[in-house]
Amino acid sequence: MGLFDLSNHFMTFLKKKMTLLYKPIVAALLPFFRFLKKKMLHFYNSYLQEKIAFVIKKVDAFLVKYLHKGELHDRVLLRYLVKELMLYFFVAFLFFFMIFFVNQILLLAESILKKRVPFGDVCLLIWYTLPGVIAQSSPFATLVGFLMCLGRLMSDNEVLIIRASGQSYMIIVVPVIVLGLLISIVSFFVNDYLLPLGTINYNKLYRQILSSNPGVEIEANSIKRLNDSTIVIGDVKDNDVSDLIFFDRGDDGKQRIIVAGKSSLLSAKKEGVLMQMNMTDAVVAFLDTKNRRDYDVLDSGSTVLNIFDSSIFGSSYSTTPREMTSFDLGRTIKNMRTRKSTSKRTLNRYIMEYNKKFSQPFGSIFFAFLALPLAFLFGKHNGQTIGLIIGLFICVLYWAMMILGQIFAGRNGINGFWAMWFPDLVIGGAGLMFYLALKRK
Fold it and tell me: pTM of the predicted model, to two decimals?
């Protein structure tokens, strides 16, 4: 008896013993989608209600269609595919999670740990950054994990056996798309609720750390930019700073330069003031930008410079877009459009952050859509390794497009919607092209 006959007998046995391929899984998913539909319609505005209801209705109808149609009726095969996809996804997720997590630890270690900040506060800061790490890791893990899994199935000829047994590609497409959608939904919850909550707590704790230990924000032999001001810092020892130069613009529009030989950092004593600099032997120069020959010089033995909370955190009393949910941010954008005093750059930045809350988590479903044809086209030999290499390469390109989109939207005024959705549209377009190439092949 040949290998082909064995595979036929094996598949015949599975078809007799295991009917209704994915009925239990789909039956379990249907209440979940209905519950999700009810919750989202309760929390989000009317526009999102219509869009989310439309998507859930289509997914619900799709699953019900295949549940009753019974085309995919091998429970073991579906369970095997789902288990393999989730296994590779979690492995890839841990890989990217550790990369972003270690990056956060190194940043905190460089700026905070060496300033003798209590270890408990550092652990809390790391804890508050975890939602951002999870939101960043999920889309990349979907692409790399699914590529490696499907590539392995392709190189081990498991896809060939599935096709030879009479199954269509839908047996693989359905779990890939459904899992990509579920990962996107979970990632959206993390990005829309847990990330703002973590950001609020992070900024609150960081303010407390700076108030009690101002030296955390001051680096030796460095240049520190605080909104429209710039500080050139010399040597730093504990809370003593030498050779300090401060550039800013006064209320009268004149350029102001402060040079001090030695300064000491003190904790803030007033509300809204983050730290206080007591300068000795300070020289202050006021320069008229319109008339360079007109200037004033002030020499003092002691000068007090207050650095306000808004110089580092943007504003002490307003909530930043990163600290808002999509519902709150959408309502804020609507109010900003009614105010004539709102600048176009500020409005566009808020629009960019609003769209980022959707484009980043739902990038998982675009990556899942792209992974299947890529694995089938290029995973015939060493599919697992090829999937890892191709996945990492695409992740780098996607990350570069996201960063460039944020830069261009913030500085050059590119529409925030297109800046955030362009990477996903590129991934979706590439996936469609590869599907057409797979169909011709």
Answer: 0.70
